């Protein structure tokens, strides 16, 4: 059974700092991986989706990398801002049968201090 | 365009009551998913529809949970005889096709007292 782990569980950084969030998964047979942001009391906002054949994806100040063979993904946030404060979740989509059931980590709660 | 919408946003039910949660997916999205998110946890898969067909209900925790999407658009998740352990946020997501990027609604927070 796929397990997704996110480290650290919580992170507090001063505004302007660059930071990295980590995601690891136990089964490398994945179709794609998505990073989401969740604000308190809100649903999930999709940030980036990386296909299994890709190494990284970029959107603005966000860069996500994928190393499928080692079961790892990182989300890099450049020049952090207070508005980036939220919980960040990664989710893997398995390949083969059931290739739609996202398995999520518990998330990393990010606080950016002005 | 409009995103995924869910109603109600908040629901308080007494133990033993039945509840119905509604999801309006993005127009044209064939695939629809329901997830359950307990406090402090990541969402967990409940069920999947392709158009009106429920192709996977392996994540439904008990036979008290029932989902439908009769016309291949709006979906309803029904929970019968609610229990305290059903308290969670119920998230709906839709996508153009099953393996494509999933777009989530704001969720319904269910509290069973």
Q: Secondary-structure blueprint of this entry?
A:
The complex is a heterodimer of chains A (114) and B (113).
Chain A: E1 4-7, E2 10-14, E3 19-25, E4 30-38, E5 44-51, E6 56-59, E7 62-67, E8 72-77, E9 86-94, E10 103-104, E11 108-113
Parallel strand pairs in A: 2-11
Antiparallel strand pairs in A: 1-3, 3-8, 4-5, 4-9, 6-7, 7-8, 9-10, 9-11
Chain B: E1 5-7, E2 10-13, E3 19-24, E4 31-37, E5 44-50, E6 53-56, E7 65-68, E8 75-79, E9 88-95, E10 103-104, E11 108-112
Parallel strand pairs in B: 2-11
Antiparallel strand pairs in B: 1-3, 3-8, 4-5, 4-9, 5-6, 7-8, 9-10, 9-11
Could you explain how this protein is built, in words?
The complex is a heterodimer of chains A (114) and B (113). Chain A has no helices and eleven strands. Chain A has 114 residues and is mainly beta. Chain A has strands at 4-7, 10-14, 19-25, 30-38, 44-51, 56-59, 62-67, 72-77, 86-94, 103-104, 108-113. Chain A is 0% helix and 58% strand. With 113 residues, chain B is mainly β. Chain B contains no helices and eleven strands. Chain B has strands at residues 5-7, 10-13, 19-24, 31-37, 44-50, 53-56, 65-68, 75-79, 88-95, 103-104, 108-112. Chain B starts with a strand and ends with a strand. The model of chain B has no long low-confidence stretch (mean pLDDT 95). The chains are: A mainly beta (114), B mainly beta (113). The A-B interface holds A 4, 31-32, 34, 36, 41-46, 49, 89, 91, 93, 98-107 and B 4, 6, 31, 33, 35, 40-45, 48, 56, 59, 91, 93, 95, 98-99, 101-107, 109.
Q: SSE order of chain B, as H and E? A: EEEEEEEEEEE
Low-confidence stretches of chain A: none
Oligomer: heterodimer
Total E-strand runs of chain B:
11
Give me the number of helical elements of chain A: 0
Largest sheet of chain A: 6 strands, mixed
Backbone shape of chain A:
globular
The largest contact between protein chains, plus residue counts on each side, is: A-B, 25 and 27 residues
What is the residue-mean pLDDT of chain B, rounded to a whole number? 95
Question: Roughly what fraction of the amino acids of chain B lie in strands?
Answer: over 45%
Number of helices of chain B: 0
- Give Rg of chain B in angstroms: 13 Å
Termini of chain B, distance in Å?
A: 37 Å
From the spread of the alpha carbons, the general shape of chain B counts as globular
Structural class of chain A: mainly beta
Structural class of chain B: mainly beta
Q: Gyration radius of chain A, to the nearest Å?
A: 14 Å
User: Strand portion of chain A, in percent?
Assistant: over 45%
Order of helices and strands of chain A: EEEEEEEEEEE
Low-confidence stretches of chain B: none
Helix content of chain B: under 10%
């Amino acid at each position: 059974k796929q397990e997704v782990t996110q480290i650290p569980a919580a992170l507090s950084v001063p505004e302007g700092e660059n930071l990295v969030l980590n995601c690891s998964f136990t089964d490398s047979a994945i179709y794609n991986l998505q990073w989401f942001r969740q604000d308190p009391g809100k649903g999930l906002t999709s940030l980036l989706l990386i296909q299994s054949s890709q190494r990284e994806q970029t959107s603005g100040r966000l860069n996500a990398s994928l190393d499928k063979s080692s079961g790892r993904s990182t989300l890099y946030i450049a020049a952090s801002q207070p508005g980036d404060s939220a919980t960040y979740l990664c989710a893997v989509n398995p390949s083969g049968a059931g290739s739609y059931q996202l398995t999520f980590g518990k998330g990393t709660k990010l606080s950016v201090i002005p | 365009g409009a995103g995924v919408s869910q109603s109600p946003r908040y629901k308080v039910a007494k133990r033993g009551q039945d509840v119905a949660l509604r999801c309006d997916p993005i127009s044209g999205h064939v695939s629809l998913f329901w997830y359950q998110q307990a406090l402090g946890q990541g969402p967990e898969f409940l069920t999947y529809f392709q158009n009106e067909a429920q192709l996977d209900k392996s994540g439904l925790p008990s036979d008290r949970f029932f989902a439908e999407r009769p016309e291949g658009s709006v979906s309803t998740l029904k929970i019968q005889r609610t229990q305290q352990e059903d308290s969670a946020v119920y998230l709906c997501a839709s996508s153009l096709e099953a393996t494509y990027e999933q777009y989530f609604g704001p969720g319904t927070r269910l509290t069973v007292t």
